[in-house]
Each structure stands twice: as structure tokens, then as C-alpha cells.
Write a structure and sequence with these properties.
By secondary structure, the protein is an alpha+beta fold. The protein is built from four helices and twelve strands, in the order αβββββββββααβββα.
Length: 189
């Protein structure tokens, strides 16, 4: 009986989340700030992003304001200046960012957005990028605020700019090796 109830509960949760429509866009971070949460279990962040490219007709405005909810201070998407952000709508019809799903976007080249998915094992789908450097000093400073433990800059560099996709030039600069066009990175998680 207990096993049957557990299976039914899992199916119900899966059914609920699988029917939630996901909205995605490439956005430029304007601001991410922690605000008071209605729920003591979640941390709440108010996000303001400029919409650079929308993957859904319902995202029409050029600036989008939405809230993020997380159990811990793990708002890693805020480290990047640009990202594909995945949103859902709450019961009031407002966009919200649950579980803080994102895909880093690094470069706009010839009107196309490029990024990477650090979970990709296969770089064969990625394009080789020549002679593009990034100054990441500001990104690493934001990373230090996301991870409040004392961590080394080398760890931050590898966490946010993995060696698979970037070559370290010095403490605050990397060279891009491989990126993928945003449309190919798009995942409805």
C-alpha cells in the first residue's frame, strides 16, 4: 500500500510539472536583488532583464521583471551578463523563475547569440571561435557573492568558465574556444 501511494504521488508530481509551459528568452541582466520572501523556506530575488531574443510569443516586452525562488543562495545565473532564462507562470499569470534554470550566453556575433552548456560532454556540436577574449573580472566578483564560502578564484573560474570551452589567459581574462548558437542550446527542462 505504501509503495502504491508513493508511485501515485510521483506520477501526480510528474504530471503537474510536465504540463507546465516553459517560456524562454535570451536576456541581458539589468539587476538581480534579494527581496523579502512570503515563504521562509525559499529565498526570493527580483530580476530585471532586457529581452534580447525571445523564444516564445508571450514574451513581448523589451524589459522583463520576474521573481526567482531558491532554497539556498544559488543564483548562479546572475554571474553572467547574458543568459537563456527559463520561466513559468504562477497562478496569477506572472512570470517566475523556478529552480533557477539557465544557460550561459557569452557572445553576440553577426546578430546571433552563442553560449555553452557545461553539462555537454560532446563538443562536436560546438563551433570553434577564433580570437575572442572575455574580461571576466566583474563576473568572478559576482560569483564570490553567490558562493559565500571562502573559495579560490581558480575554482570560480572553472565553475563559470570551464576549460572545455575557455582557455585561461590571466586572472581576469579568458579566450573562447567553443560555443554553440542559442537555438541549439535551448532546452525545455
Amino acid at each position: 500500500m505504501k509503495k502504491t501511494c508513493t508511485i501515485l504521488l510521483i506520477l501526480l508530481i510528474h504530471l503537474t510539472y510536465s504540463q507546465t509551459k516553459i517560456y524562454a528568452f535570451v536576456g541581458k541582466k539589468i539587476s538581480v536583488e534579494r527581496v523579502k520572501s512570503e515563504n521562509n523556506f525559499y529565498l526570493k530575488y527580483k530580476n530585471v532583464y532586457k529581452v534580447e531574443q525571445s523564444f516564445d510569443e508571450e514574451i513581448k516586452s523589451d524589459t522583463l521583471v520576474f521573481n526567482s525562488y531558491t532554497h539556498m543562495n544559488q543564483i548562479q545565473y546572475s554571474v553572467y551578463d547574458y543568459a537563456i532564462i527559463y520561466l513559468v507562470k504562477n497562478e496569477k499569470g506572472e512570470f517566475i523563475h523556478r529552480r533557477t534554470y539557465y544557460t550561459p550566453i557569452i557572445l553576440n556575433k553577426d546578430g546571433k547569440w552563442y553560449g555553452f552548456d557545461k553539462l555537454d560532454d560532446n563538443i562536436y556540436d560546438y563551433e570553434i571561435i577564433h580570437d575572442e577574449h572575455l574580461n571576466i573580472r566583474k563576473n568572478l566578483a559576482v560569483g564570490k557573492t553567490v558562493f559565500q564560502e571562502k573559495i579560490k578564484k581558480k575554482w570560480l573560474l572553472n565553475a563559470f568558465f570551464p576549460e572545455k570551452f575557455f582557455l585561461k589567459i590571466n586572472r581576469s581574462k579568458v579566450e573562447i574556444k567553443y560555443l554553440k548558437i542559442a537555438e541549439k542550446l535551448l532546452k525545455f527542462k
